[in-house]
Design brief:
alpha/beta, 487 residues
């Protein structure tokens, strides 16, 4: 380890910001700690308004050139970034696992390949992005997407690099320049991505990475008058603060926020499939915004469903995420673990019953938990826990199932298990959710719209929806042929 470099399992990571194509250190630092064993991963440059101003200035200076870069060249460079990611999948996977505690096998086989795919998808989508011209009383309408300008992207810690590149790739493809602010609990792979982008030939200032603690740097970024777009994934309280900060400049926002999604299991469902879907909700130690944390099960099959769920959940192995056989790793931070435990303790005190779990493990591990005997208006049913804690309620009929499913302030996703296609169509039409999965879970195609309803978010990203957000969409109306002769 040097003054500005830390080494994580043999991988060197620069701990400074990346601004205008150069490494920039801050006078102060913050400590990055691994959730696996509490070991210190590094001292990270702690940005303030000074670094925020420098990063936005770099993005502003680079914007005209990047916006004018032909689509084919922008796409080529994004593919070059994807190439660089693929060459370093093992390094990225190792660093991410140490930094956020998610499974190394998942990072190797799924998450990091998806990071590369994010860049490739939006590079290719850019090249085919078009609307057919249409006519109005003989006049031709032509829709185009103009790059909007510097974009601030604020990303979470549960899937740091994948979720960051969901935003970075379309913003860059659209012709915008980017200032990325990664979560302070998981800053390391963002720094590696800056290196990869530079090696791929991305011009200086097109991608900037600034690290820091919450509002110390966040407010300066989101209130900056030169910022033209803000995309944020995180909590509702932070989104409110960002919205207030952005309001002065009327800066457009895309917000992907919390979830309290239901899994509806009808009596006609394949129960083995339903149980598999239910156990899958423990993925990433329950730290998945889309997770179906509320099981709503038809009364006639609830006992059998619960029996099979308990049996299946007992096969999960909790432990070191670097171990190939581990299914559930640690939770991200002592503060988050306290939050999870507080939710469960209050629920148990209010009369809930822990079918499994209901307690902490050693270190930053929380036992996979399923709570029953919970009231619809209880905190544990209404608020996002973001840990391996699930609830189970029963319903008598379709109407009650939909009523319970929709009875929270969130609307991010819903999962439905049924063997009746007509029921699936009826119920999905009534559910309030940005994404509904029928007899499956977490199937995510980048050309589909993604986002939430109610307090789960504002706006949609994915495919053309991403370009609609990151661009100023323009319609050009041209008079009928021959107008030039009337000048």
């Amino acid at each position: 380890m040097t003054e500005h470099t830390t080494t994580v399992a043999g991988v060197a990571v620069d701990t400074r910001h990346w601004i205008g194509g150069e490494r920039v250190a801050s006078p102060a630092t913050f400590t990055d700690v691994s959730p696996i064993d509490g070991s210190v991963l590094g001292e990270i440059s702690r940005g303030t308004a000074t670094e925020a101003e420098a990063a936005v200035a770099a993005a502003r200076a680079a914007f005209p050139g990047w916006a004018a870069t032909p689509r084919a060249e922008r796409a080529r460079l994004l593919h070059a970034v994807a190439d660089g990611v693929e060459k370093r999948i093992e390094e990225l996977a190792i660093v991410e696992t140490h930094d956020n505690g998610a499974l190394l096998r998942s990072h190797r086989r799924g998450v990091m390949p998806r990071v590369a795919h994010n860049f490739r998808f939006f590079a290719d989508w850019l090249l085919k992005l078009e609307h057919a011209d249409f006519e109005t009383r003989g006049h031709t309408n032509h829709v185009s997407w103009d790059p909007a300008g510097p974009s601030v992207l604020i990303t979470p810690w549960n899937a740091p690099l994948m979720l960051a590149t969901w935003k970075i790739a379309p913003a860059l493809a659209a012709g915008n320049t980017v200032v990325l602010k990664p979560a302070e609990w998981t800053p390391l792979t963002a720094s590696l991505l800056a290196d990869i982008a530079a090696e791929a030939g991305l011009p200086a200032g097109v991608l900037n990475v600034v690290q820091g603690l919450g509002s110390e740097i966040g407010d300066a970024l989101t209130s900056h008058p030169d910022v033209r777009r803000i995309s944020f994934t995180g909590s509702v309280p932070t989104a409110r603060r960002i919205s207030q900060s952005a309001a002065a400049g009327l800066t457009p926002l895309s917000l992907e926020l919390g979830g309290k999604s239901p899994l509806l299991v009808f009596a006609d469902a394949d129960l083995d499939l339903a149980v598999d879907l239910a156990v899958e909700q423990y993925d990433n130690a329950g730290q998945v915004c889309l997770a179906a944390t509320r099981f709503l099960v038809e009364e006639t099959v609830a006992e059998e469903f619960t029996r099979r769920f308990v049996e299946k959940a007992a096969t999960l192995k909790q432990g070191d995420p670097r171990d190939e056989v581990t299914d559930i790793g640690p939770n991200i931070h002592p503060r988050q673990l306290e939050k999870i435990d507080g939710f469960v303790r209050r629920a148990l005190a209010a009369g809930a019953r822990a079918v499994i779990g209901g307690h902490r493990g050693e270190g930053q591990y929380y036992a996979p938990t399923l709570l029953t005997d919970v009231a619809q208006d209880s905190e544990i049913v209404q608020e996002e826990v973001f840990g391996p804690v699930l609830t189970l309620q029963t319903f008598a009929d379709e109407d009650e199932a939909v009523r319970l499913a929709n009875d929270t302030r969130f609307g991010l996703a819903a999962t439905l298990a049924t063997g009746d296609p007509a029921r699936a169509e009826r119920v999905t039409a009534r559910l309030v959710a940005g994404t509904v999965w029928v007899n499956c879970f977490f199937v995510r195609d980048l050309q589909a719209p993604f986002g939430g309803s109610r307090h789960s978010g504002v706006g949609r990203e994915g495919g053309t929806w991403s370009f609609d957000f990151y661009c100023d969409v323009k319609n050009t109306v041209t008079a009928p042929k021959g107008w030039q002769d009337h000048g």
